[in-house]
Specification:
The complex is a heterodimer.
Chain A lengths: L1 H24 L4 H29 L7 H23 L3 H19 L15 H36 L5 H5 L3 H34 L7 H21 L5 H23 L12 H4 L1
Helix pairs in contact in A: 1-2, 1-4, 2-3, 3-4, 3-5, 5-7, 5-9, 7-8, 8-9
Chain B lengths: L5 E8 L5 H7 L3 H12 L4 E8 L3 E8 L3 H10 L8 E4 L1 H11 L11 H15 L5 H20 L9 H13 L6 E5 L3 H12 L4 E5 L3 H11 L2 E3 L4 H7 L2 E4 L10 H10 L5 E5 L16 E5 H68 L5 H31 L4 H10 L15 H7 L6
Parallel strand pairs in B: 5-6, 5-8, 6-7, 8-9, 9-10
Antiparallel strand pairs in B: 1-3, 1-4, 2-3
Helix pairs in contact in B: 4-6, 4-12, 5-6, 6-12, 7-8, 7-12, 10-11, 12-13, 12-14, 13-14, 14-15
């Protein structure tokens, strides 16, 4: 049931992608951007219903696996994108974010494995686990949007500096606007990610009786956290523009890389959707 | 079209007259209103509208007296002689449509002209010198301009160097609020660009020049603050947009100076716009992060691209204008054919009625009511059958722009002769008179 609703949401995402891409091609038709925003909002609501139904059907276990994680992440990215549109009114961002959401969402519609972890977190851990999952995924979603905005920045910088003044020049927003948006997304993502890290180590303490275990997941999360912390700090010392955009993209590359490697690692102790058997003892 | 009422245009523009002549002819406000009133009081002038901008003064007269518009210019200055162009009929209609659509502007596609034509029409309407014809003409011209703007890309891109500079600065800094503009050197172009940036909301304009007097004078002129030349480095640390146009033969902004400034700015973006020839900003400064630099060639190249793109769009725009001119003129000529038709029918029906009555009175009371009715119906039927062909052909001829046939028909059937006095005995006006409804009234 929840899968059907999710596929239905994907249709609205496809509609939003179409509207935004058409808007990007024909920027004079502002109505297309508005249509894209509405379709995205509807898709967001429909996906929320799908996630709610999924929680009812499988008790939320679905979302401890990689596939479920991606479903929630796309949903959070859509929500974040809606908020960004609301605050900054840069519809061109939609033309970059919505296609990525759709691309990430598509495999989850068809590659449905029942890869739920066999052991679910005990009730005592429930709120902390939920907060951990949501903040970790939201953090990654914000880093992803920041990376896309950084790509937009680099494209526009190439136009402006290279004196091309072509189609992209007129369609992309100003460098200042993109740079500022990038910075705010990174900053907010960092705060959210910090919460994820704290709840994560809190859980580790309960499950493994120790907050730090040199577990690959923990190590990579800490490295990512330090990287973003450094970026937030660099920003204060005047780093911005091209170098900051490149850093944003590199950092997100690391996030994706760690997610992929950790999920293909042979059966380790923890991964996204870990093993909570320790907490039972 | 000869004789009769028609649209006549006499004018001069940036294409035909130097500014020295244009400024002596141009008028505005009350002066323009008086001129309109004066012109419309002249004999043979029906309706008048005068478009007066800094690039053109054009006098549109609807009536028989095309000379009046010419006198209007010559009375203002005799220098206008030789710079005037004259158009009549469709040519005049086309000219107004092209002007309103910004196809005749100095910078093709510039947006102000439509507003200026609207203003001219508004003034003529309020002075009651614009009547039914000029109103229809102007509304069609505005609709044409709107079509041109929405159906072609003629208004896209930046049309002048300062517009390009403004567009660039907007793409780098977005909102210009809280940004400072620094003018290095006292060139005229630089002042123009600085003004454009201030109009866009730049908060502070700083002016510096080797000679402090000129810096002060320019600062006063554009509403900026003069700063001493010795403080250039600290000024550069402050300003976001730097417009450079000094007469110096070498680079004023060198690579070393720029990197020193970027350190002081802690990497905040800076944009140099170098309007000087020879160049005053080393192009190598743009190799640093967040430093943007454009010289006059870069800007001119964009202007050139815009103009090329607009020239291409102008071809499509001309086609739209042509179609609208055709449609407007046809509409008018169809209207022109209608009075001849009405006259013809009235004439024929009068004869039919008279003949029917004569027949009936001859027959006396020998016919009953039914018989009388059939005689009258027969007379009417003959009129209808006879006129059916000519009616259709006249409408056709009018729609295809043939204005001779209505006149010929009027002459052939002998209608419309009693209204002759308006034509003031000019023999060639016989054909023209029928083509213009107004000459019948």
């Amino acid at each position: 049931m929840s899968l059907q609703v999710l596929r239905f949401a994907a249709l609205f995402y496809a509609g939003a992608v179409t509207a935004y891409v058409l808007y990007f091609a024909r920027p004079r038709h502002l109505g297309l951007a508005t249509a894209g925003q509405w379709l995205l909002a509807i898709a967001f609501l429909v996906q929320a219903a799908a996630i709610g139904l999924g929680c009812k059907e499988y008790g939320g276990a679905e979302f401890f696996g990689l596939r479920g994680g991606l479903v929630v992440m796309t949903w959070l990215a859509a929500g974040a994108s809606l908020v960004v549109q609301r605050l900054y009114r840069i519809p061109a961002v939609g033309a970059f974010v919505t296609p990525l959401i759709l691309v990430v969402l598509l495999p989850t519609l068809f590659l449905v494995k029942k890869d739920f972890p066999s052991v679910l977190p005990p009730e005592v851990l429930r709120p902390m686990v939920t907060i951990h999952i949501v903040t970790a995924l939201l953090g990654v979603a914000l880093f992803a949007i920041a990376a896309l905005v950084a790509v937009m920045y680099l494209l526009q910088e190439r136009e402006v500096k290279g004196k091309r003044f072509g189609a992209l020049f007129s369609r992309l927003p100003s460098l200042a606007a993109l740079d500022q948006l990038n910075q705010r997304l990174v900053r907010f993502g960092f705060v959210v990610y910090t919460v994820a890290l704290l709840t994560g180590s809190g859980m580790a303490k309960v499950v493994w009786k120790s907050a730090w275990q040199w577990d690959p997941q923990q190590v990579s999360s800490l490295v990512i956290w330090i990287l973003y912390a450094v970026m937030v700090q660099l920003r204060h010392t005047g780093w911005h523009g091209r170098r900051f955009a490149l850093l944003t993209i590199a950092a997100f590359g690391l996030v994706v890389g760690s997610m992929v490697t950790l999920n293909v690692l042979p059966d380790g102790t923890t991964r996204h959707g870990g093993d909570y058997s320790g907490a039972r003892k | 079209m000869k004789g009769g009422r028609d649209l006549h245009l006499v004018g001069l523009s940036h294409k035909s007259a130097p500014v020295a002549v244009r400024e002596r002819v141009a008028l505005s406000g009350d002066e323009l209103k008086d001129a309109l009133a004066g012109l419309s009081a002249r004999p043979g002038v029906g309706e008048v509208m005068v478009v007066s901008t800094c690039n053109r003064v054009e006098c549109y007269v609807y009536g028989e007296a095309r000379e009046e518009a010419r006198h209007f210019f010559l009375s203002r200055t005799h220098e206008a002689d030789g710079h005037l162009y004259e158009r009549s009929g469709r040519e005049a209609i086309r000219h107004l449509f092209r002007v309103a659509s910004s196809l005749d502007s100095m910078v093709v596609g510039e947006p102000q002209i439509l507003g200026q034509v609207k203003e001219a029409y508004g003034l003529a309407a309020s002075a009651e010198t614009a009547g039914a014809y000029v109103s229809r003409l102007c509304n069609r011209a505005f609709a044409t301009a709107k079509r041109v703007r929405s159906e072609t890309e003629i208004a896209r891109g930046a049309g002048s160097v300062s517009q390009v500079a403004v567009e660039l600065v907007e793409k780098i800094f977005g909102n210009l609020k809280n940004r400072a503009v620094l003018l290095v050197g006292a060139g005229k172009m630089g002042a123009l660009s600085a003004k454009a940036l201030r109009d866009l909301g730049a908060d502070r304009i700083l002016v510096t020049n080797r000679s402090p007097e000129r810096a002060r004078a320019l600062a006063a002129e554009i509403g900026g603050v003069a700063e001493p030349w010795e403080g250039l480095v600290s000024l550069l640390a402050l300003a976001d947009v730097v417009i450079v146009s000094t007469g110096a033969p070498t680079y004023v902004i060198t690579r070393e100076l720029a990197s020193q400034v970027m350190k002081a700015r802690r990497g905040r973006s800076i944009c140099f716009i170098d309007l000087a020839v020879p160049r005053n900003v080393d192009p190598a400064v743009a190799e640093q992060d967040n430093v943007y630099s454009y010289d006059i060639d870069d800007l001119q190249k964009v202007v050139g691209q815009t103009h090329a793109a607009r020239a291409e769009e102008a071809i499509r725009a001309e086609a739209i204008v042509e179609a609208e001119v055709m449609a407007f003129a046809q509409e008018r000529e169809t209207r022109a054919a209608l009075p001849v038709l009405a006259e013809l029918r009235r004439h024929a029906e009068q004869i039919a009625r008279a003949e029917a009555e004569r027949t009936l009175s001859h027959l006396g009371g020998k016919l009953d009511e039914k018989g009388r009715k059939s005689v009258e119906a027969m007379a009417q039927a003959i009129v209808n059958k006879l006129l059916h062909g000519p009616t259709a052909r006249l409408k056709e001829a009018a729609a295809s722009g043939d204005s001779d046939l209505p006149g010929a028909a009027a002459e052939l059937f002998g209608v419309g002769e009693e209204e002759k006095p308006r034509a003031r005995g000019r023999p060639e006006s016989d054909s023209g008179a029928a083509a213009h409804p107004e000459s019948h009234r």
